TrEMBL record:
Protein name per the record: Transglycosylase domain-containing protein
Reactions that this protein is recorded to catalyse: Preferential cleavage: (Ac)2-L-Lys-D-Ala-|-D-Ala. Also transpeptidation of peptidyl-alanyl moieties that are N-acyl substituents of D-alanine; [GlcNAc-(1->4)-Mur2Ac(oyl-L-Ala-gamma-D-Glu-L-Lys-D-Ala-D-Ala)](n)-di-trans,octa-cis-undecaprenyl diphosphate + beta-D-GlcNAc-(1->4)-Mur2Ac(oyl-L-Ala-gamma-D-Glu-L-Lys-D-Ala-D-Ala)-di-trans,octa-cis-undecaprenyl diphosphate = [GlcNAc-(1->4)-Mur2Ac(oyl-L-Ala-gamma-D-Glu-L-Lys-D-Ala-D-Ala)](n+1)-di-trans,octa-cis-undecaprenyl diphosphate + di-trans,octa-cis-undecaprenyl diphosphate + H(+)
Membrane-crossing residue ranges in chain numbering: 119-139
Organism: Streptacidiphilus cavernicola
Matching InterPro entries: Beta-lactam/transpept-like, Glyco_trans_51, Glycosyltr_51/Transpeptidase, Lysozyme-like_dom_sf, PBP_transglycosylase, PCN-bd_Tpept
Upper classification of the organism: Bacteria, Bacillati, Actinomycetota, Actinomycetes, Kitasatosporales
Biased composition annotated in UniProt, kind: Polar residues: 835-848
Length: 866
């Protein structure tokens, strides 16, 4: 110590200064230990000041540092806690509990926070429970069979020769085996969806984690599900609902499959066939066709990379051929797949370098009805409708939508191709909507061809194609007036039933092709009661002819050859509407209730609107000797291996509707139409043929229906704007000039071109000879012909106010001399006589009524329909 500091002396026995004070709190020191006491050093000691003498032992055990610290903080055994008061509960020993929770000895929030040991124990228990639950689920879950809906395929339609025509249905899928898919294409899918497919056990936790990471960081999107899981979802569970239970079951089943329940090739095959790829394509085969028009076996690595890219967003990529934004996204995804191919050693970097963006395999444009192009769509519709209408129990649209049907049709591929080619050729040569929009726009054709011996529909032409926006099948839809092609129905009825030629009489007189009726233009028409037909306004109805070169009383054969209307309108009235309609119904024209027009004068010359198929079958019945066959387009139906033809599909009906004598008589009349009449252009076929032309009011439709002993074909042409229903006049169509449009022109040209191809290689056959008929009766006022050795008949008419013209009819040349310049191939274009446009005294174009009841005719008061 310094000498300047005073040293306090204490004598023995004296009290230290600090002892006089009361108990002092120890100043804070290190760890709360009080500093050493200050005492006087004994005399003689070397040092003075603080003494190192220890404190005397306390009367109680000295507390530990931890107790002192808790005491200072007001916790533990000190303070209020030591007295047993406070929120922590009573003092005393730790209670014995299996789970120390809430924790003993803790206060506040800490009482409710589990200790590390508790957390670890809980985690272990939870893990054990999950393992046990998963193990139980794995042991008790069975792998179900593949859902049939995931293997649903198209309906398959076959040509008459048994080859595949097309496949269609609600699910566009054709199952292919894994060996038919190139290995590089399989690797494309693994690169895009599951790189560890060949080695994983059906599930891949790392893939799931990687997918979550990429999604969180904005990286490339890759499915977290393995290929096995995706196949299970698509084909086994067939449940795409994003629920926890479904996902758990998917994982369990995938794990079982991955352990050998199915082989890897089986899983890959099922996966490729069950995916949806956009463009209505289910399965890799349908996708290859939809995007590239090839089979799956023909896909390249680059094409497979794009198709693999569509799996995650199939509907997004289907419009790639027209959408620039989709093209950019597809290119990025395509590059990603190719890069992963390199990363997995499925292709070399050198090969990858060759696949630059300009080598991107751009898919072909999307045609939504790609399998129903051209005439195929109409053929499928016709066959489908036939099955639905002739099956018991009914096969419905829903059944066809479910798929699995194999439909064997009567359509001959070569004939369908030839008919379409004939229509296209004539249309291309004569119709030009761009050059002549006012005349050639909205030009349409419908045609059908039938085997007369069976009623089988061998070909049809329904329009340019459903894939081109023309959905209506022109061959199988009613709505086009048939015109004079209906006259053979009048003639068949007259030959079978006779006619009432004496007004008010019930006596029916026999009718033959040589029976004569008035062929004058604008004549009045009487019904069987002798009443004159009138227009709705009460004025007399006058029937108009298009051909004014056949005046006076002419034979029904001559009227048929030259398509003269007035004789057949009067004949129809004399035979009776009910009888003619009954014949039309028996010939199949009553199949559609709206196809036959009402009881009017125009009915007998073609105001009815049956389909081309039905009209072709009418002539096929004549060709077949009067035996009617229900037209049919399907011979056999099989579904999932079961033949439905016998128990379900009704057999086509076959019924005689007229005598062979009647049929053969009309055949001879229609052969003359081709030899000498309005259809001479059909002679180009180079074999015996029969047929009838038909043209309607204002030239709104034109027909030619012709046949040989082997084949009957109907061709109809008309103009109609699909957006504005209603027939348009064809005056000037094909030429752009104000000329007529007859059935003997373009319809006959189509018929000739087609029949020449369809009958190529078949033997030339003749029709049965016409029977020898007894002398038939003539209309009242007609002169009786006098037979001559040359079989020439001269008829003289004597109208009340004019001198009678003379008409001569011979089998070799039945036309008057005055008409020779207008006959033959060019004669069908002869313009009508200006006087033919005359009307009755009312100056209007009235519609005739029957017995003044005002029932109108769609042909108009002076309609010619011939």
């Amino acid at each position: 110590m310094s000498e300047h500091r005073r040293k306090q002396q204490s004598t023995p026995g004296s009290t230290p200064p600090g002892a006089r004070r009361g108990p002092q709190q120890a100043p804070p020191g290190r760890q709360g230990t009080p500093p050493p006491r200050r005492t006087a050093a004994p005399q003689g000691s070397r040092s003075q000041g603080f003494s190192s003498e220890p404190r005397p032992a306390p009367s109680e055990p000295r507390p530990t540092r931890a107790e002192m610290r808790r005491s200072a903080q007001g916790k533990g055994g000190g303070g209020r806690r030591a007295t047993g008061s406070g929120p922590a509960g009573p003092a005393g020993p730790r209670p014995k509990r299996f789970l120390d929770y809430p924790r003993w000895g803790k206060n506040g929030v800490r009482r409710w926070i589990p200790s590390f040991k508790q957390i670890l124990s809980g985690a272990l228990i939870m893990f054990a429970a999950v393992v046990g639950f998963v193990g139980y689920a794995y042991a008790t879950t069975a792998v179900p069979k593949v859902n049939p809906s995931s293997e649903q395929q198209n309906n398959v339609f076959y040509w008459a020769d048994g080859t595949v025509m097309t496949k269609t249905g609600s699910v566009n899928r054709q199952i292919v085996h894994i060996q038919d898919v190139p290995k590089v294409v399989q690797e494309d899918f693994m690169a895009a969806e599951d790189e560890s497919f060949e080695t994983n056990s059906g599930i891949d936790p790392m893939s799931i984690l990687r997918a979550v990471k990429n999604m969180a960081t904005g990286g490339d999107i890759q499915s977290g599900s393995t290929i096995t899981q995706q196949w299970v979802k698509n084909s086994v569970l067939a449940n795409t609902q994003q629920t926890l239970s479904r996902k758990f079951k998917e994982i369990i089943i995938s794990a079982k499959i991955g352990r050998g329940y199915y082989s890897k090739p089986q899983v890959m095959e099922g996966y490729l066939n069950s995916n949806y790829y956009g463009r209505g394509a289910n399965g890799i085969e349908a996708a290859a066709q939809a995007y590239y028009g090839v089979h799956a076996s023909q896909l390249t690595l680059a094409q497979g990379a794009f198709i693999a890219a569509t799996v995650n967003q199939p509907s997004y990529y289907q419009d790639i051929s027209t959408d620039k934004g989709v093209q950019a996204a597809a290119l990025a995804r395509w590059n990603y797949v190719l890069n992963r191919m390199v990363a997995n050693n499925w292709m070399t970097a050198a090969d990858r370098a060759k696949l630059t963006p300009d080598k991107f395999p751009m898919p072909k444009p999307w045609i939504r009805n790609a399998t129903l192009t051209g005439q195929i769509g109409y053929l499928v519709d016709t066959a489908t409708n036939y099955v639905e209408q002739h099956s018991t129990p009914k096969v419905t649209d829903s059944d066809f939508a479910a798929g699995g049907f194999q439909v064997y049709t009567t359509f001959k591929k070569s004939d369908v191709t030839a008919l379409a080619a004939a229509v296209d050729k004539v249309t291309k040569e004569h119709i030009d909507p761009k050059k002549r929009p006012n005349y050639d726009s909205f030009f349409q054709t419908g045609a059908a061809s039938i085997d007369p011996g069976s009623g089988a529909i061998v070909s049809l032409y329904g329009g340019p194609g459903q894939d081109k926006g023309h959905d209506i099948n022109n061959a199988n839809s009613a709505g086009v007036p048939v015109g004079s092609t209906f006259k053979p129905v009048d003639m068949a009825t007259a030959l079978e039933k006779g006619a009432i030629l004496t007004p008010g009489s019930d006596v029916r007189s026999p009718i033959t092709p040589d029976s004569k009726f008035n062929g004058n233009n604008l004549i009045t028409i009487r019904n069987q009661a002798g009443q004159l037909l009138t227009n709705p306004n009460g004025s007399l109805f006058h029937q108009r002819n298009d051909n004014n070169n056949m005046p006076g009383f002419i034979t029904l054969r001559t009227a048929m050859n030259n398509s003269v209307n007035t004789p057949y309108v009067q004949l129809g009235e004399d035979v009776g509407y009910a009888n003619v309609k009954a014949m039309a119904v028996s010939l199949g024209l009553g199949f559609d209730p709206n196809a036959l027009s009402g009881d009017t004068a125009g009915f007998f010359i073609g105001t009815s609107t049956p389909s081309a198929i039905r009209m072709a079958n009418v002539y096929a019945t004549l060709d077949n000797g009067g035996t009617f066959h229900e037209p049919y387009s399907v011979t056999k139906v099989v579904r999932t291996g079961t033949d439905l033809t016998s128990p379900v599909l009704a057999k086509p009906t076959s019924t005689p509707v007229m005598s062979p004598s009647t049929a053969n008589t009309i055949n001879s009349m229609l052969q003359d139409v081709v030899k000498y009449g309005t259809a001479t252009a059909a002679q180009a076929i180079g074999r015996p043929a029969a047929g009838k032309t038909g043209t309607t009011d204002d030239y709104k439709s034109a027909w030619f229906i012709g046949y040989t002993p082997q084949l009957a074909t109907a061709v109809a042409m008309f103009r109609e704007d699909p957006k504005h229903p209603g027939m348009m006049s064809m005056v000037g169509t094909g030429t752009g000039q104000k000329t007529t449009f007859y059935g003997g022109a373009l319809p006959t040209e189509v018929w000739t071109d087609y029949m020449s191809d369809a009958l190529k290689g078949q033997s030339v056959m003749n029709f049965p000879p016409a029977p020898s008929l007894p002398k038939g009766a003539n209309e009242s006022g007609a002169p009786t012909p006098t037979p001559t050795p040359t079989n020439t008949v001269t008829a003289t008419t004597a109208p009340p106010t004019t001198a009678p013209p003379t008409a001569t009819s011979t089998p070799s040349n039945p036309f008057p001399t005055s008409t020779q310049s207008c006959l033959g191939v060019g004669g069908i274009f002869c313009p009508p006589d200006p006087s033919s446009t005359a009307t009755d005294t009312s100056g209007a174009s009235p519609t005739p009524s029957r017995s003044k009841k005002g029932q109108g005719s769609s042909s108009g008061g002076t309609g010619f329909l011939g």
